[in-house]
Amino acid sequence: MIAYFEEYGTPLKEYIADTGLYLNEANKAGKKIMFEAQLGALRDIDFGIYPYTSSSNTIAAYAPIGAGVPNLKLDNVIGIMKAYSSCVGEGPFTTEYFGEKAEKLREAGGEYGAATGRPRRVGPFDVVASKYGIRCQGADEIALTKLDILSGHEELEICTAYELNGKKLTEFPFTDVLDECKPVFEKIKGWNCDISKCRKKEDLPKEALDYIHFIERACECKIRYVSVGAERDAYIEM
Q: In the chain, at which end, N or C, are there fewer CB atoms within 10 A of the end residue's CB?
């Protein structure tokens, strides 16, 4: 074990520091600090769909705490959401597609585990869950990703509410009833053209803009960025 650390740890030695002190000094010097999260709000141990969660807090408010600077305050939070829904692992997934619908969306989006190759669960955009995530994260604006994946659909579905025992829910419910919830869909016209080369919002077809604005209004949060491909420059600032 010691030999292992000496071989692989020694090259990293000069980069090991008191991270909290380092970031505090950077803040004092007026530098900008960016925190990047991995998992979404529904995997947060306190606010997620327990027990199908991570073992830690994944919401934005905990980023400074996890980085060793609990005294710092966030001044801007960008929530990142796909233009459709996806899920890794088990647990409730109200808008999940099955069969041919799921396969088409999964193939188009390359929704397979990066390490395991395991197929991810997929479905249409979920306004109810997304609004809850935006609230938990305190998102000031949204980056909507993988919009290009939805090209080629005559019609797109968006889940705008859940139905539980005949009642319509527009706010995300507790985990224990999620399995009983049914999605309430609204349909919106799709677009048949390739949008991966678009770099300005004026380049997008009307139907794609309508889709973006529908989500923006329904989620009550400004969509600032839209990605239309995997390349670094494949995005549009709205």
A: N
Distance between CA atoms of residues 91 and 85, nearest Å: 14
What are 43's two structure tokens?
């995997």
Which contacts (CB < 8 Å, 24+ apart) does range 39-45 have?
A: 40/133, 41/132, 41/133, 41/136, 41/137, 42/129, 42/132, 42/133, 44/136
d(CA 148, CA 154): 14
Q: What is the pLDDT of residues 37-48, one digit of tens each?
A: 888 999 999 999
Q: Are 136 and 170 in contact (CB under 8 A)?
A: no
Q: What percent of the chain has pLDDT over 70?
A: 100
Which positions ≥6 away from 95 have C-beta within 8 Å?
85, 123, 124, 125, 126, 129, 159, 183
CATH label, 76-237, candidates 3.90.170.10, 3.40.50.720, 3.40.50.880, 2.40.50.1000: 3.90.170.10
Question: Which residues are CB-neighbours of 112 under 8 A, at least 6 positions away?
Answer: 106, 118, 119, 120
| Tens-place pLDDT, residues 75-121 | 999 999 999 999 988 899 999 999 999 999 999 999 998 788 889 99
The count of other CB atoms within 10 Å of the CB of residue 74 is: 14
